[in-house]
Amino acid sequence: MLIEHAGSRPVVAASAYVAPTAVLCGEVTVGENARVLFGAVVSADGGAVEIGEGCILMENAVVRGREGYPVALGEHVLIGPHAHVNGAVIERDVFVATGASIFPGARVGAGSEVRINAVVHVNSVLPEQAVVPIGWIAAGDPAQLFAPQAHEELWPVQLGLDFPGTVFGIARDELTMAKVSKHYAELFGRHRDDRIVGHE
Question: Model confidence over 139-179: pLDDT tens digits?
Fold first, then answer.
């Protein structure tokens, strides 16, 4: 389904395929020979999304551009089922496995692998040819790798990345869920005037 949002509508290359239950919303560009499979959602919520040539977005993946953090997927990127890419740049030939999450301001270098349920944290930079193991967390610039149980080692790095300021636009010492929900209600309320403009 193709949806116009904030005056912009998706542009899909003639050689690309978008499954009938996938959703492309707003300023989204799908390159030649790309594939967006069943249940995937690609939404430009204040930031454009560019899907490069030969990219594969598998079932139920979510890719979201946001204000100040557009998404760019280089050529031949594979985004696995249930993976989440939010406001990040992913260079060419990257594998993002099932359930992985890549957060705003992150950059994943060419030829890297972000394996099952791994995380690339906000504002973190993963070098070329890097591997984030299953369930591990990459954080920092340049990114360091942390095992899931290494919270004490991760926290000082994570704190400096400013997750609440980057994702919610709210200072950490002012963060409440009431402010977060208000922020998201305003952001996603902008979809009330969206229009379905086509089906692929």
Answer: 999 999 999 999 999 999 999 999 999 999 999 999 999 99
Measured CA to CA, the distance from residue 177 to residue 100 in angstroms comes to 24
CA–CA separation, 6 and 194 (whole Å): 7
DSSP of 7-61: TB--EE-TT-EE-TT-EEESSEEE-TT-EE-TT-EEEEEBS-EEE-TT-EE-TT-
Residue 104 falls in which region: left (phi positive, over 0), alpha (psi -120 to 50) or beta: beta
pTM value? Answer: 0.95
CB 88 within 8 A of CB 71: yes
138 close to 124: Cβ distance less than 8 angstroms = yes
Judging by DSSP bridges, how do beta strands 2-4 and 195-198 pair with one another?
Answer: antiparallel
Domain boundaries, the chain: 2-198
Residue 159 tokens, joined: 């704190």
Which of the four pLDDT bands, split at 50, 70 and 90, describes residue 198? confident
Question: CB within 8 A of 10, min separation 6: which ones?
Answer: 2, 3, 24, 25, 26, 27, 28, 29, 30, 42
> What is the spatial distance between Cα 89 and Cα 52, in angstroms, rounded to a whole number?
11
Fold exhibited by the domain 2-198: UDP N-Acetylglucosamine Acyltransferase; domain 1 (2.160.10)
